[in-house]
Structures are given as structure tokens and as C-alpha cells.
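User: Please fill in residues for this 330-position structure.
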């Protein structure tokens, strides 16, 4: 998830392309002001979280910026925004937040937010924004499910690449079950710590590539990317390479302790998946998309209501495998 800076991308995209809904925006025709509702929320199994939404209006020109503390701000004030999920209504209130802090672009942005909302996986959610002029924007979606992973091989004593490739294969494969139309962002991360001296222990983590491709400088790491496939695989040789490189990357250490390998997948619901692919183009490197529509699921305006869920699983690492690199398991 994994959180990505989608709000600013959405604002630009909505002004630079047509919108795939009935209330389409034509950047080449006469400018028509339209309300924009953008709300991406996290679903989880834990409990209440804070959520926010942007409610703005389109402005002429391609350089779409939000300065909610100025009279010329495109933010829409005085709206009533309510999210309903599983019989509970959550009211969003206006708040000012600082965006791009510490940069020349730092500014205040008006958002609608709530501090206590619980969206559980598979919940149905519907949002309704009533503008000061009486116009109503609505959208609905279903939160993605929490994923449970199957492995190509269940290591009895923790992960190791010391297995027979003829019978166990050369890749560690993760699969999961979920409905069609969802978008996945998989990631495998190694967690470890470095002890500099008798008292200082520094926590570290490093992403694992799916594979390493030979190149002029010795090799290029290929990491997982957005996919509609319900699987992700990692070459054992790529994992070996990361483990072997830990000691070389640390300038000096008294002790390097391996904790676990964590596999996670951030799942976008169907509307957010369609929005993402409409902005980022085809999910393969060979297609060329011309005059594509930017997806919107907002009735009465443009924008997107979407949700995502981060699913995680932790896997122990075999002690003999750890010690083969000169590291420690505890």
C-alpha cells in the first residue's frame, strides 16, 4: 500500500484527460466547472482509523494546485459529507492539513475528515456529499477482502533455499483467492537488525526482488509491480543474493540478526483499480493507449471513491540458512 500520493495525481489527471462517466470533461472544449470528490480509505481487521476526503472544483489550466487558505481556492467549503457502511453513518468535518511540508510547494489544504471509522474487509460503503448549492455527489464500493496466502512449499524449519530444485522448484510462489477485477501490489521484505556495539541495536529492512536480470553492470533487480494476477513468485537465487549482500552493505557490525521474511499485498478495490490503470496506462509494456478516459465512479461530479486493504504474513527463516551467511537468528 503501501500509501501512494494519488490525490495530486488525480487532480492533474482530471484536468488533462476525459472522464469515463456520464458527466465527462472535455479538455479541448469550453471549460465547465465541475465538483471533484476524491476519497480513498483503508479497510482493516484491527479497528477504528482516521480517513479523509478531498472535495474540490475544477479550474481552468493544467497546473492544478490547492491553496485552501486563499480566496481563490478551488476547495469546496460548507458541504455535508457522510459515509455509510454496514448500517453506520460517519460524518466528515472540515479540517486544514499541511501538504508537501518543508518544500517550496508547502501549502494548507482543506479536507473533510473523520477520526473514528472502521471499514472492515468486504464491507459495502456509500458516500454522499451535499454541496452548498444543493448538488449531490454519490458513489459506492465494496472493500477488498483480507487475503490469506498459500505457498508453493511450506518450509518445516523456516525458509531456506537449501532444497531440491528438481522436486521443489526454483521459485517461492505465493497465491491467494479473491474476486476478479482487483489490483494487487505484492512485496516481500526481509527484517533484520545490526548490532554496532554491546548496547546499540539498529532495526533494518530490505525489499526482496522477484529476480535478478543479467546486465552490463552485473545484474538488474526486478521488483514486484501492480498486477491483476493472484500470485507472485521470487527466485531463490534473488533471495540468496539479498542475504549475501547484507554483510557487504553494512560498513561494520558486531552482530547481524535475522528476524523474519514478511510477504504483504496491498489490494485495491475495483473502482480504485480501474482509476489506477486509467491513469498509469496498460498493465503490459507493449500496449500504446491514446486518448484514454480517466475513470470516475462519482455520480453528479467526477473523481473516485476507493478502498484498499493490506494483507500480511510473516515467515521464519531456517537457522542453518542464516548461519551459512555468518549471521545470527537471535
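Assistant: Residues filled in for all 330 positions:
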Amino acid at each position: 500500500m503501501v500509501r501512494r500520493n494519488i490525490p495530486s495525481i488525480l487532480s492533474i489527471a482530471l484536468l488533462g484527460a476525459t472522464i469515463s462517466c456520464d458527466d465527462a470533461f472535455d479538455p479541448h472544449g469550453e471549460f465547465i466547472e465541475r465538483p471533484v470528490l476524491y476519497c480513498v480509505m483503508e479497510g482493516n481487521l484491527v479497528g477504528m482509523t482516521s480517513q479523509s476526503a478531498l472535495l474540490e472544483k475544477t479550474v481552468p489550466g493544467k497546473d492544478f494546485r490547492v491553496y485552501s487558505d486563499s480566496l481563490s481556492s478551488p476547495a469546496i467549503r460548507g458541504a455535508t459529507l457522510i459515509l455509510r457502511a454496514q448500517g453506520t453513518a460517519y460524518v466528515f468535518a472540515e479540517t486544514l492539513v499541511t501538504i508537501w511540508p518543508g518544500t517550496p510547494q508547502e501549502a494548507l489544504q482543506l479536507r473533510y475528515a473523520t477520526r473514528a471509522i472502521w471499514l472492515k474487509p468486504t464491507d459495502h460503503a456509500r458516500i454522499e456529499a451535499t454541496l452548498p448549492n444543493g448538488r449531490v455527489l454519490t458513489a459506492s464500493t465494496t472493500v477488498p477482502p483480507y487475503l490469506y496466502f498459500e505457498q508453493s512449499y511450506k518450509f518445516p524449519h523456516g525458509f531456506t533455499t537449501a532444497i531440491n530444485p528438481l522436486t521443489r522448484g526454483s521459485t517461492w510462489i505465493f497465491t491467494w483467492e479473491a474476486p476478479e477485477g482487483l489490483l494487487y501490489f505484492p512485496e516481500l521484505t526481509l527484517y533484520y537488525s545490526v548490532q554496532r556495539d554491546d548496547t546499540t541495536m539498529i532495526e533494518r529492512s530490505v525489499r526482496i526482488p522477484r529476480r535478478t536480470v543479467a546486465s552490463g553492470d552485473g545484474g538488474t533487480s526486478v521488483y514486484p509491480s501492480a498486477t491483476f494476477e493472484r500470485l507472485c513468485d521470487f527466485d531463490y537465487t534473488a533471495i540468496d543474493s539479498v542475504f549475501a549482500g547484507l554483510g557487504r552493505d553494512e560498513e561494520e557490525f558486531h552482530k547481524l540478526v535475522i528476524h523474519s521474511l514478511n510477504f504483504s499485498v496491498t489490494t485495491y478495490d475495483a473502482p480504485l483499480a480501474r482509476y489506477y490503470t486509467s491513469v498509469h496506462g496498460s498493465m503490459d509494456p507493449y500496449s500504446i493507449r491514446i486518448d484514454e478516459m480517466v475513470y470516475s465512479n462519482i455520480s453528479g461530479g467526477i473523481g473516485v471513491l476507493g478502498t484498499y486493504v493490506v494483507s500480511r504474513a510473516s515467515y521464519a527463516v531456517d537457522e542453518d540458512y542464516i548461519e551459512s551467511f555468518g549471521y545470527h537468528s537471535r
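For context: The chain is about 15% helix and 40% strand.
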